[in-house]
Amino acid sequence: MAHCLNIDRVAKATDYYGWVQGMYLAKDDCGIAIRLLNGFEYETQSRKLWQKLCAGAELVIDVGAHTGLYSLEARRAGAKEVLSIEPYHLNYARMLMNLRHSGFDTKSVVFCAASDRDGVENFSVDTPAYYCSSGGKLGADEFSIPYPVITKRIDSLLKEEHHHKVRAVKIDTEGHVANVLRGMPKILEHRPDLILECIEEGLTEILAPLGYKFFVIDERTGLSPISALRPDRQFTFNSPNRYATVREVE
């Protein structure tokens, strides 16, 4: 997110029901759709990079897919298959709706949380019950009532013969990225490109031994090389994401 929302302009969105660039908005229940409706940027450089990575890709994975913006853009860019993973029921249902509205199938949309084990864990959100939350996370939260969700290793979601087809993975899991990476070692053997939220320790230790190089994605200006994936605990909207790749970057 490159700019803070303007309250006066957002107020105009509160009575809107309809589609915004393929994303459905019911009054004020999806922050991403509200931004798009009001003409604000949303992760501009991350989305441009994602579209480039997805162009003609055999398979890409959208982890923490929310209501489907990145999954939609992957399909529009020409990715042959998109595995979309989302654990929050409201987000998942809206994503199905958004994909179907744009004419895309939903056979690879999975209702679960990506993690480092197959099982069941508590999932918490701290937003109203009607809102397509962008802050849900695994684990109990003192400010919300957690509910159980299925957790899956991404390696186990794909047949082994498909692991090498993964061209790119986008991971937005509110501090659970390391767990997701530990759940996909067989896919990481093939060194897919990664767009990662970076608000936790331990990501460099997982990826550097595999030969990955790291970049900050500044949503105003683009990529800047960095030596390690240092947590951005302030989570500034201009650069919440990081790019990891083994390829040369122009």
**What is the rounded distance between the termini?**
24 Å
* Major sheet description: 8 strands, mixed
**CA-based gyration radius:** 17 Å
What best-fitting shape do the alpha-carbon axes yield? globular
Strand content: 25-35%
* Rounded average pLDDT: 90
Q: What is the CATH C level class of the largest domain, in words?
A: Alpha Beta
| CATH overall fold name of the largest domain | Rossmann fold
- Helix percent reads 25-40%
**Beta strands, count:** 14
- Second-tier CATH architecture of the largest domain: 3-Layer(aba) Sandwich
The strand order across the widest sheet is 5-4-3-10-11-14-12-13
Number of helical stretches of at least 4 residues: 9
Give the low-pLDDT segments.
Answer: 1-11
Full CATH superfamily name of the largest domain? Vaccinia Virus protein VP39
How many structural domains can be distinguished in the coordinates? 2
H/E element sequence: HEEHHEHEHEEEEEHEHHEHEEE
Backbone structural class: alpha/beta
Walkthrough of the structure:
- The chain is an alpha/beta fold and 250 residues long.
- The chain folds into 2 domains: 1-41, no CATH class; 43-114 and 157-245, Vaccinia Virus protein VP39 (Rossmann fold, 3-Layer(aba) Sandwich).
- It has helices at 7-11, 31-37, 44-54, 69-76, 89-101, 154-157, 177-182, 185-188, 203-207, and strands spanning 17-20, 23-26, 59-63, 82-86, 109-111, 113-114, 119-124, 137-138, 147-152, 166-171, 193-197, 213-218, 222-226, 241-245.
- It has an 8-stranded mixed beta sheet with strand order 5-4-3-10-11-14-12-13, with helices on one face. Strands 6-9-7-8 form a 4-stranded mixed beta sheet.
- Helix 3 (44-54) packs across helix 4 (69-76).
- The longest helix has 13 residues, at 89-101.
- The two termini are 24 Å apart.
- Mean pLDDT is 90; it is low at 1-11.
